[in-house]
Write a structure and sequence with these properties.
The complex is a heterodimer of chains A (about 250) and B (about 350). With about 250 residues, chain A is an alpha/beta fold. Chain A folds into two domains: about 150 residues, Rossmann fold (3-Layer(aba) Sandwich), CATH 3.40.50; about 80 residues, no CATH class. Chain A is about 35% helix and about 10% strand. In chain B, strand 7, helix 5 and strand 8 form a beta-alpha-beta unit. Classes of the chains: A alpha/beta (about 250), B alpha+beta (about 350). Chains A and B meet through helix 7, helix 8 and helix 10 of A and loops of B.
Chain lengths: ~250, ~350
């Protein structure tokens, strides 16, 4: 049996998630023993014109070309994985959805903005069917490997729908709120092993909101710690504006 | 077994003697106001006077992630049970946390036994440390009557000014004491002092609530439909802090983690929480407790009713961690009090 043919693609993004894959180190070498990478712009110049067993897409859809590109990838792939916040829920690119497209165009390209047509940011899953997702900005490499293994085995992978706090307590971190620092952990999906918190940072909500976050409760918590919920909850937009993240 | 005394200036020497024979875990400082059990490399790291650590010592009996077995499917379905535990000592365990371990023992040593738990349990020696004053406003060890130990330890230490009193409870405890030369036998005077100290403690560790232990079963008999749970749920973020830090919460999930070759891998047990929305989802997508109020209520019933029916024991140790860690200020003592008061208001 030949190794599954895997291709990496990127749309509107910083390519930071590809960098995480390239930085896997020894695990990348191990990985290359089990898959055949047929396209990966950041690492190699070869292209492939056949069918992909697995297409791994980074970045969000922000223009017609990208929309056509993902549709073409879908038609040539047995399985598709969207990875990184941009691909999974629109990510930082989604911020532009908060202002009219014409205004965005003028800010970036000035009077010639019509030469560079753009459209509201969409996650890959808004355009095509996606079989696997790996949220996060950037992706958490161990989770990427877990999802990839599930894809190779043809098994479902469910991203946790519980709070980042769960993993943060597993790691026995002091709660950010106890230090008077705001944190999106209680309303953000886990799966990153509270990566930022373990390193002394707060949670920015890059993995997207829980499917049923208690926003009213979160507001009360912020008020209790003398933090301004209106300002803080706006920061959800940094990664989730295209996903309809509400600043409520 | 004869109890012994240890001069305080010799305590670090005893810890070093322990470290020569065992891995030693002890409460260490984690932040300004917080502590955590960690394996120590220097006796100076030990903080005997700590408020309850972020996670209780249950993490050594039931680790957050624990490999249960390794599998290999290249030839049939080979599975090999996996237990990785070295003999260890946990030093400085408060009586509330010893009570927590006693609860876990009931659950995991009940039939069918959990052999992974048993294997860890058999390799862990406990040296308790007596609280002589209340740690903070969250604890309810007065209500739960867990401020003074009732077994479950190998050695229990009590601060007696310039000495520590070592109550020795097991042969393992005795063998620990034999690792170090500096002990002297506890005389009648020391035994008397300990007795006096314990009887004085009763005045300090009064019931922190307007609820008595004896009336808890009846409160939870009718409290199921109380409006208290709706009010609790409005605040609750379902972050799972309360269950993860609870010394008696033991629910877990089991996952298979394949290696890249997909043929080999390991089966891992991970802590789970009834507060997580997905916890009670079963095949077909049905969720037994989709509402936050159902989940917050379930946690309390798993402390004050169901284990009483099953084991004749409350599964709250009064350590106060759930209230201390709750960013939404859901307080266990207040909740029980409110539940009592809500009688007739339903």
């Amino acid at each position: 049996m030949s190794a599954p043919k895997v291709a990496f693609f990127d749309l509107a993004c910083c390519e930071g998630c590809q960098l995480q894959v390239a930085n896997l180190g020894e695990e990348l070498l191990d990985l290359l023993g089990h898959i055949e990478v047929v396209e990966f712009r950041e690492l190699m110049s070869e292209k492939w014109d056949g069918e992909y067993d697995l297409a791994i897409i980074e970045g969000s859809v922000t223009n017609v070309e990208a929309e056509e590109k993902v549709k073409e990838i879908r038609s040539r792939s047995k399985m598709v994985m969207a990875y990184g916040a941009c691909a999974v829920n629109g990510g930082i690119n989604g911020i532009k959805n908060k202002t009219p497209m014409e205004e965005n165009g003028r800010i970036v390209y000035g009077d010639r903005f019509k030469d560079y047509p753009s459209m509201p940011t969409k996650a890959v899953g808004d355009v095509i069917d996606v079989d696997y997702i790996v949220p996060g900005c950037p992706i958490y490499p161990p989770e990427f490997l877990k999802v990839l293994k599930s894809a190779l085995a043809g098994l479902e992978y469910v991203i946790p729908d519980h709070a980042v706090c769960v993993e943060c307590r597993f790691n026995e971190n002091e709660c950010m709120y106890e230090k008077g620092i705001n944190c999106m952990g209680p309303i953000t999906r886990a799966g990153c092993n509270s990566w930022c918190l373990n390193n002394g940072n707060r949670c920015y909500g890059c993995r997207g909101l829980l499917s049923n976050p208690n926003i009213h409760g979160a507001r009360d918590v912020m008020k209790k710690y003398d933090l301004d919920p209106d300002v803080i909850l706006k920061s959800i937009d940094m990664y989730n504006a295209a996903a309809g993240g509400k600043d409520e | 077994m004869k109890d012994v005394l240890l001069k305080k200036e010799l305590f670090n020497g005893f810890v070093e003697a322990l470290m020569n024979s065992y891995k030693v875990a002890a409460p260490t400082r984690r932040g300004d106001k917080s502590f955590a059990f960690n394996f120590i490399t220097d006796p100076a790291e030990v903080c005997l006077d700590h408020i309850p650590t972020i996670l209780p010592p249950k993490k050594y009996f039931l680790p957050q992630h624990e490999t249960l077995l390794e599998y290999n499917t290249t030839e049939g379905q080979n599975m090999q049970a996996f237990v990785e535990i070295e003999p260890m000592v946990i030093l400085g365990v408060h009586s509330c946390d010893i009570a927590g371990i006693q609860c876990l023992n009931h659950v995991f040593m009940d039939r069918p036994k959990d052999y992974h738990y048993q294997a860890r349990h058999d390799k862990i020696l406990l040296i308790g440390y007596e609280c002589l004053r209340k740690c903070d406003q969250y604890a309810s060890c007065g209500l739960m009557q867990t401020h003074t130990p009732t077994g479950g330890y190998d050695i229990f230490m009590t601060d007696m000014g310039d000495h520590y009193y070592f109550s020795i409870n097991t042969f393992d405890g005795k063998s620990l004491v034999q690792l170090f030369d500096g002990f002297e036998l506890a005389d009648t005077a020391a035994e008397k002092t300990l007795k006096k100290l314990r009887s004085d403690k009763k005045k300090l560790f009064r019931n922190e609530t307007d609820v008595s232990l004896a009336e808890i079963p009846s409160i939870f008999e009718w409290g199921f439909d109380s409006h208290v749970w709706d009010r609790t749920a409005e605040k609750c973020l379902s972050c799972g802090n309360c269950t993860n830090v609870c010394p008696t919460c033991y629910c877990f999930d089991v996952n298979d983690e394949p290696e890249l070759n997909l043929a080999k891998g390991r089966r891992v047990r991970v802590w789970d929480s009834c507060q997580n929305e997905t916890f009670a989802i079963i095949a077909g997508g049905e969720n037994f407790r989709p509402k936050r109020a159902q989940r917050t209520r379930h946690r309390f019933f798993r402390k004050f009713k169901y284990p009483v029916m099953r084991y004749g024991k409350f599964f709250c140790t009064g350590c106060g961690r759930c209230s201390r860690q709750c960013m939404a200020s859901i307080n266990l003592k207040e909740t029980i009090s409110n539940l009592k008061r809500s009688w007739g208001e339903i």
